[in-house]
Design a protein that fits this description.
Elements lengths: L1 H43 L11 H4 L5 H13 L3 E6 L8 H13 L4 E6 L6 H7 L4 H5 L3 E4 L3 H4 L5 H18 L4 E4 L11 H14 L3 E2 L18 E2 L2 E2 L1 H15 L3
Parallel strand pairs: 1-2, 1-3, 3-4, 4-5
Antiparallel strand pairs: 6-7
Keywords: Coiled coil, Hydrolase
Organism: Metabacillus bambusae
GO molecular function: hydrolase activity
Length: 257
């Protein structure tokens, strides 16, 4: 009986050791799984998305200081600057089309809102009479790039009257929007013209005398008496090549490298 009691006690002790060992191993395995899972979650944490900022101050360095500030504010706030181009062609493929696309591609979609308004075949006198220029006041542009219809006026209006008409338009715009940045440019040049270049020279002098920004894109074209000029024009209008040199000049001004 005594031997039987010893045997039972021994069996119980062995069983207790075995069960205890199994319990301990299971506890360690569970803790290892938790630790592994925790590490796995930690590894899957994704870094915060980095914002790519466009250095608008670099691109705008050719522009007036006040305009640089406007562009910087537009970039940081997302409130677009209204850029109105008035008087030029709004046809697809025209310089204005190329210019607008490249401007947005460089500065981003949220800096400039570009509107192109053509005066078609109207002279400056026609624009004054029908008062279509007053539509600019409704748009309240931050920047106005104005191209007077010098080609249409040529031989009809006279340069003194043309400049007077231009001044009337500008007076109206400035009275409504004195903070607007005004830029003025000539239409496309002509090959071997007689009076037209002289009238455009007077437009340039007028702009400079009145402290206006004059964008002389003619600098990008061949010389006026160079037969190569014909390659840039079709029936006195800028063709694909002409529109490209025109757009390139303005883009070099608005987008510094």
């Amino acid at each position: 009986m005594k031997k039987l009691l010893v045997l039972v006690t021994l069996i119980v002790c062995v069983a207790a050791i075995i069960l205890g060992n199994l319990h301990w191993n299971n506890k360690i395995s569970t803790q290892g799984a938790v630790t592994s899972t925790s590490k796995s979650v930690s590894l899957k944490e994704e870094p915060e998305e980095e914002k790519i900022e466009i250095d608008v101050s670099k691109y705008a360095s050719n522009l007036p200081k006040d305009l640089q500030e406007k562009i910087s504010n537009a970039s940081s706030t997302g409130k677009q600057l209204k850029l109105v181009i008035f008087g030029t062609s709004d046809e697809k493929g025209a310089w204005s089309d190329q210019f607008s696309e490249e401007l947005k591609a460089t500065y981003g979609e949220n800096v400039f809102e570009v509107t192109v308004l053509s005066t078609g075949d109207k002279t400056t006198l026609d624009v004054i009479k029908d008062q279509s220029y007053e539509g600019i006041n409704e748009l309240s542009p931050d920047i106005l790039l104005f191209e007077p219809s010098m080609l249409k006026d040529n031989g009809l209006i006279g340069i003194e009257n043309t400049l007077d008409n231009i001044q009337k338009m500008i007076d109206s715009w400035k009275a409504e929007n004195e903070d607007m940045t005004l830029m003025i440019q000539p239409p496309n040049p002509l090959y071997d013209a007689t009076y037209y270049p002289s009238e455009v020279s007077q437009l340039k002098a007028y702009a400079e005398e009145n402290d206006m920004i004059y964008l002389n894109h003619w600098e990008n074209w061949p010389d006026l008496d160079d037969v190569k000029m014909k390659d840039y024009l079709t029936e006195s209008k800028a063709n694909e090549s002409g529109n490209k040199v025109w757009a390139d000049y303005l883009l070099n001004y608005f987008i510094a490298e």
